[in-house]
Amino acid sequence: MTGSEACERSVEWAAAKLRGLGLDVAVEPYELPALWLPGGASADVVPPEGPGLGVAALPFSPPTPGRLEAPLLYAGAGEPEAIRRLGAGARGAVLLLGSPEGGASPLEAGAAPGAAATLA
Predict the structure, then answer these.
(1) For position 108, what pLDDT does the model report?
(2) Whole-structure pTM over 0.85, yes or no?
(3) Do 38 and 59 contact (CB within 8 A), yes or no?
(4) Cα(5)–Cα(7) distance, rounded to whole angstroms?
(5) Backbone angles phi, psi at 86, to 5 degrees
(6) Burial code of 78-100, b = ≥16 C-beta within 10 A, e = fewer?
(7) Which residues, 6+ apart, have CB-to-CB distance to 93 below 8 Å?
(8) pLDDT digit string (tens) for 78-95?
(9) How many angstroms separate the CA atoms of 89 and 75, rounded?
C-alpha cells in the first residue's frame, strides 16, 4: 500500500535490483496527503430483510463514525441524477449502488447531501 513501510521496502528493493543491473537510479520523494490502511468492515441487513453482506472498505474512503443503522436506498449506478431523485430521502441513508462501472464513483455518490454511507 502506498505510503506504508512495506511500500518503502519494496522501493528500496527495486532500486537496489536496478542498480545491480548497472542502471542509474534515483528514488524521488513525494507528498502523500494521508496514509490509508485497510481495517475491518462489515454490514448486515437487519431482519426481516436478510443476512450479513460481504463488504470491503474502498481505499481512502472516509469511515463511518462507528456502528451505523440507517435506511438502505437504491441509487442506481450513483449517477448525479439518480441521487438527485432521492432528494431529502438520502439524508442519513446508506446508498446502494447497482453498478459502479459507467456510473459515478462510490466516493462521488457518497457525497450525496447527508448520505451516511455508500455501498457499491
Answers:
(1) 56
(2) no
(3) yes
(4) 5
(5) -70, -30
(6) bbeebbeebeeebeebbbbbeeb
(7) 70, 71, 72, 73, 86, 115, 116
(8) 778 888 888 888 888 888
(9) 11
